[in-house]
Write a structure and sequence with these properties.
14 helices, single chain, alpha+beta, 4-stranded mixed sheet, Zincin-like, two-stranded antiparallel ribbon, 3 domains, globular
Length: 442
């Protein structure tokens, strides 16, 4: 896989240089229109905008991406199964440090990763925990860790910043032309100066329109190839490609879609949160999900060579390099997990419990075994068990910790304007899952 990673780095460098060329050309065209004698000022402005956005991404890019989807960090006790899966895949991938784990409060099943090998994070949605089995969850987590291992996350942030600078500059230019009434060129030289001004204006506008489209095509084309490589990595890490294939089918078939997802973040998700991954066009953020599933299900093993063979049969062409395939060792498939799976109701309750903890609820266990959830702001020092009537005291230290968690939750929700409560829809989801578990008419 090292050869494919190195090839990806070369392609990434070429794509970044091409996007830089588009950015410089756009800056020069804008400078030529507004100040023909100082066209280099436009190039300088373009570079300054890019440097500002790049520094912002380096310093706080990971937090901004996680904040844009209202992701909240959790600890091991909040979701032990998820943490164990992340730990297993971290070891399988050989990452030097385990990624931090985040939860996104939405019913839409999906996940994405950000950061580098030393400082990364994996964010999964509550819907993913509700709908997927352990093998399927392992496949999705392995896919995202594959992106980290293959250095995809670092490139996607850099390319996204470059694309953002191009879009910002093009939008500013179009608005400037609109508000100036097309009188940007300050002087004309000799006869026909007015015609030259019109020609420059048309060329600059065409460039301003085409530059964002070209940059987006470059960005998305590279993103699609990396999804296949991450699938190959996930198959090897888990030794069970059918788990990821089944997860992709469930995510793509889900009726819920993530609302208000930033288009700069959309290519980082396992399946496109915008269209479910089914559509395939030049502007698709991901390859068609059915193509990815077809390759995974055609694998006769779990190694890179087996993925390459399945890819060639299903898609035609090649994905991995010859030296990578020559060095690749056969990896056998493992059997599905024999661990008993929880029912849909139990999964929904577990996911809701995670959201409750994020919201500052206290969890107490009565002597009769009933788990009692005490909402934040509860003023009394004791609570009555609704099952047996026993009085359970509330430890003040626990109450103080819950208050701190509630304050941290409020601060986290204030990261994004209009952020919803982490408990939004939690009871409705639990009730819906319970209704599915009950026989009809009861």
């Amino acid at each position: 896989m090292w050869e494919a990673i190195r090839a990806n780095k070369r392609r990434s460098a070429v794509l970044i240089l091409m996007m830089a060329g588009i950015l410089i050309a756009l800056g020069y065209g804008i400078g030529l229109y507004f100040a023909p004698d100082y066209a280099f000022v436009g190039v300088l402005a373009a570079v300054v905008i890019w440097l500002f956005l790049w520094m912002t991404a380096v310093i706080g890019g990971r937090g901004m991406l996680l904040g844009s989807v209202q992701a909240r960090r959790i600890q091991h006790d909040d979701a032990p199964v998820l943490f164990n899966v992340v730990e297993e895949m971290t070891i399988a991938a050989g990452l030097p440090k385990m990624p931090q784990v985040y939860i996104i409060d939405t019913d839409a099943p999906n996940a994405f990763a950000v950061g580098n090998e030393q400082n990364s994070a994996v964010a999964v949605t509550a819907g993913l925990l509700m709908q997927l089995s352990r093998d399927e969850l392992q496949g999705v987590v392995a896919h995202e860790i594959g992106h980290i291992k293959n250095h995809d996350t670092r490139f996607m942030v850099l390319a996204g910043v470059m694309m953002g600078a191009i879009i910002l500059l093009a939008d500013a230019f179009v608005r400037g032309v609109f508000y100036s009434g097309g009188r940007g060129r300050r002087r004309s030289s000799g006869k026909g100066g007015g015609q030259a001004q019109i020609v420059v204006l048309i060329l600059a506008l065409v460039l301003a329109v085409l530059a964002p489209l070209l940059a987006q095509l470059l960005y998305l084309a590279c993103s699609r190839r990396r999804e296949y490589l991450a699938d190959a990595s996930a198959a090897r890490f888990t030794r069970y490609p059918a788990g990821l294939a089944s997860a992709l089918e469930k995510i793509s078939a889900s009726a819920q879609k993530m609302a208000k997802v930033n288009r700069a973040v959309a290519p980082m998700f396992t399946v496109s949160p915008l269209k479910g991954g089914a559509a395939h066009s030049l502007f698709s953020t991901h390859p068609p999900t059915e193509d990815r599933v077809r390759v995974l299900r055609a694998m006769g093993g779990a190694g890179y060579a087996e993925y390459e063979a399945a890819y060639a049969r299903a898609q035609g062409g090649h994905l991995l390099g010859d030296r990578t395939l020559a060095d690749a060792q056969p990896v056998g498939l493992r059997a599905p997990s024999s661990e008993p799976e929880k029912t849909g109701l139990a999964k929904a309750r577990d996911a809701v419990d995670i959201l409750h903890r994020m919201g500052g609820y206290l969890f107490l266990t009565c002597a009769c075994g009933l788990k009692i959830k005490v909402p934040p702001g509860y003023k009394k020092d004791e609570v009555h068990c609704p099952r047996c009537g026993r009085v359970t005291p509330i430890p003040r230290a626990v109450a103080a910790a819950a208050g701190a968690a509630t304050a941290a939750g409020l601060a986290g929700r204030q990261m994004g304007e209009g952020a919803a409560s982490p408990l939004q829809g939690a009871k409705e989801r639990e009730a819906a899952a319970q209704a599915k578990e009950l026989p009809e008419g009861k």
